[in-house]
């Protein structure tokens, strides 16, 4: 039996904690039992899913349906197009959501769920592959399926032996295993993941500089020999706290910040040229850098803005500029 460490020894005698430990240990053992049945059927299921030209259609009734909905969502978010079709709704028109290019993944603890009969018959009629996840190898679902993943016989954690608990945990874990194996087969990257998760904290962590940088006419850029009057005008106009300077080829060679202006303020200030006070070879970043990394870069270097450049023949050509506040506005912190 797996021992779960989070319960303090003095509390183990509490009946509720004792029952909770019993449930969690049963479900932990059940997942371990699945590892003993992995083999040819699992690999055949992966091959079927990988070859699917359409979507993976997941279906199940009751608690199996809830688990199936989550499995479908996991497929979709990790690069395998997927939808959930409720078996009862399928009998009233939603069979039209299933095409000959799809593969069905059907969950049923008993394999005899009556509501699944129409969707199974439809799959047989149109030669749509079916992967079954069930505990009953001799069930109707198992016999009708192209491939059957048979869950091990493990008692439900429900003391009445009625509520699906251990069985649904096993089905969910097996669905996760399928999704992750497909992710690996397809070389699905963190960048691919980010494209499918643009919202929330995850989207912020995977946000690239190119998505939030200022480009084109919004960049404060001048020829390297510009006058201080020109510097002040463009710095005020673009309002990004700095001005970059380019050579005849358009490569970035220098930078003046509003702090530089204050430090060099004098009676002869307006008669100076930009090259007299600019910082040569300023720091820059790439457009493909994560916004989170760019924020850390600016913080570590004590700067509030940085040019985004593209390197060609040893020179850095500006393609954008990023301000610290751009990261914060995007929710990166």
Question: Would you mind describing this structure in some detail?
Answer:
The chain has 333 residues and is an alpha/beta fold. It has two domains: 9-188, Rossmann fold, CATH 3.40.50; 209-329, Roll (CBS-domain). The chain has 14 helices and twelve strands. The chain has helices at residues 15-34, 40-51, 63-77, 87-90, 117-125, 140-144, 166-185, 190-196, 200-205, 228-238, 258-263, 274-277, 291-301, 324-329, and strands spanning 56-60, 82-84, 103-107, 130-134, 147-150, 221-223, 242-246, 252-257, 279-280, 284-285, 305-312, 315-323. The strands form three sheets. Strands 2-1-3-4-5 form a five-stranded parallel beta sheet. β7 (242-246) and β8 form a beta hairpin.
Brief sketch in words of this structure:
The protein has helices spanning 15-34, 40-51, 63-77, 87-90, 117-125, 140-144, 166-185, 190-196, 200-205, 228-238, 258-263, 274-277, 291-301, 324-329, and strands spanning 56-60, 82-84, 103-107, 130-134, 147-150, 221-223, 242-246, 252-257, 279-280, 284-285, 305-312, 315-323.
Question: What is the secondary structure topology, with strand pairs?
Answer:
Elements: H1 15-34, H2 40-51, E1 56-60, H3 63-77, E2 82-84, H4 87-90, E3 103-107, H5 117-125, E4 130-134, H6 140-144, E5 147-150, H7 166-185, H8 190-196, H9 200-205, E6 221-223, H10 228-238, E7 242-246, E8 252-257, H11 258-263, H12 274-277, E9 279-280, E10 284-285, H13 291-301, E11 305-312, E12 315-323, H14 324-329
Parallel strand pairs: 1-2, 1-3, 3-4, 4-5, 6-7, 10-11
Antiparallel strand pairs: 7-8, 8-9, 11-12
């Amino acid at each position: 039996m797996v021992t779960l460490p989070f319960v303090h020894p003095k509390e183990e005698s509490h009946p509720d904690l004792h029952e909770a430990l019993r449930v969690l240990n049963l479900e932990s053992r059940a997942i371990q039992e699945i590892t003993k049945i992995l083999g040819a059927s699992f690999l055949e299921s992966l091959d079927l899913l990988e070859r699917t030209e359409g979507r993976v259609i997941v279906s199940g009734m009751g608690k199996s349906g809830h688990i199936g909905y989550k499995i479908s969502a996991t497929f979709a978010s990790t690069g395998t197009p997927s939808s959930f079709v409720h078996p009862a709704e399928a009998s009233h028109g939603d069979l039209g959501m299933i095409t000959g290019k799809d593969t069905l993944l059907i969950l049923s603890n008993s394999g005899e769920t009556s509501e699944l009969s129409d969707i199974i018959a439809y799959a047989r009629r149109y030669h749509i592959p079916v992967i079954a996840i069930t505990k009953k190898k001799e069930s109707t679902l198992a016999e009708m399926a192209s491939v059957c993943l048979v869950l091990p016989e493990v008692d439900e954690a429900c003391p009445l032996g009625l509520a699906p608990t251990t069985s649904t945990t096993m089905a969910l874990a097996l669905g996760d295993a399928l999704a992750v194996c497909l992710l690996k087969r397809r070389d699905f990257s963190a960048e691919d993941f980010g494209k499918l998760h643009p919202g929330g904290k995850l989207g912020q962590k995977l946000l690239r500089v190119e998505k939030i940088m200022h480009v084109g006419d919004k960049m404060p850029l001048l020829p390297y020999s510009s006058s201080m009057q020109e510097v002040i005008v463009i710095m005020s106009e673009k309002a990004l706290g700095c001005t970059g300077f380019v050579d005849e080829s358009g490569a970035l060679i220098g930078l003046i910040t509003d702090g530089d202006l204050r430090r060099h303020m004098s009676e002869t200030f307006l008669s100076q040229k930009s090259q007299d006070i600019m910082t040569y070879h300023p720091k820059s970043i790439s457009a493909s850098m994560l916004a989170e990394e760019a924020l850390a870069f600016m913080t570590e270097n004590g700067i509030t803005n940085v040019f985004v450049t593209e390197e060609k023949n040893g020179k850095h050509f500006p393609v954008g500029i990023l301000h610290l506040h751009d990261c914060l506005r995007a929710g990166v912190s």
